[in-house]
Write the structure tokens for this entry.
Amino acid sequence: EGWLSLSHMTADISMFPFKEWMKCEKIAIKNHKNELSDISHPQGPYLVRKTISRMIALTRGVKCEPEQVIIGPGTQPLIRQVLGMQRENIKAAIENPGYSRIYQLLKDMNFEVFPIDLDKKGIDIKKVEALNPHFLFITPSHQFPTGIIMPISRRIELLNWASASEGRYIVEDDYDSEFKYGTDNIPSLQSLDRNQRVIYAGTFSKTIMPSFRISYLVLPPDLLREYKRHFSYWIQGSNTLNLFTLHYFIESGEYAKHVKRMNNHYEMKRENLIKELKWKFRNGIKIKNVPAGLHFIAEFKTDKGYKEIEERAKKEKLEIYSMKRFNLLGNIEEGKKIILIIGFANIKNEDIPVAVDRLYRVIY
Ligand SMILES: Cc1ncc(COP(=O)(O)O)c(CN[C@H](CF)CCC(=O)O)c1O
């Protein structure tokens, strides 16, 4: 039979309220015809930026005005735009294992990019201080891909580091912070920032769907001034009708209802998948059980290497990714165990036993 997927890269849209979305789209067309005939504000329509800034104030403790919000068609193009206006020989540091697509982007932008190891609290602050980068990329709410939730103590250390000298910024990538199961949702790093050092990055890819390409940044005031000077010519990249529809979708309460519903749905699937994995693999598996996000990390005792595992997964028609994808220096050790990133957005609850069976055949 067909492929099954334990990919971490998707959203489960089986429960997305498309009917409600289309109702909001009709309202958007009716109420914003003139805006639709024009190109929007370079940062996205003010009305939508106001709705986003109000929402993240409530849900994430982010303190910002609509003027500080920049909407764009994805995290990468937004990062490219804001960091592209920096003068040359910029040093950037990123978590390792970490988000390889941002690592690649920064290298393509001719930045000096340094992968920095994690300790149990997240990015290693001593290594950050030793490297002294201008931009530091972190995912404190739910480290990507290990899942570490950065404690307040490490957040304060990083903010103190950033405030100790001019020209230092922390990019807080808050990509799947909306999903926490039975654990506290720690407010954003940005909410603790007193020195305009944090660039907050959010996205609707996980809560709505990645195909909509609606993401945003919140810039500190002085970086915003530089941005507005630099990008007055800029034509906004997101689809304005989609943005106005999103505004009504949020304002009507449908968005919050959907995120709540998906938290419950994902928690149920996550529990079932972990139960099935433990039952099948017994002490051959070690699960990093962080109750957050749309994936978790699992270690499997095997002498098989990553290449062989990837080939066997293809043969078993099981889509799954390994830690190799996120090891930015490509020096992952193998021979005793392998580490896989296991996503549960793309698997139907009823297909979980079959997927686990296939994974068992991949590993053993
Ligand atoms: C760490 C991190 N920050 C942001 C996003 C959201 O980016 P955007 O949709 O452009 O807003 C993702 C989403 N992850 C990607 C799709 F799942 C790729 C994963 C992979 O490359 O392994 C992510 O992991």
Q: What stands out?
A: The pocket of 76U is lined by residues 9, 74-76, 99, 101, 139, 144, 173, 175, 203, 205, 210, 215, 325 (CB under 6 Å).
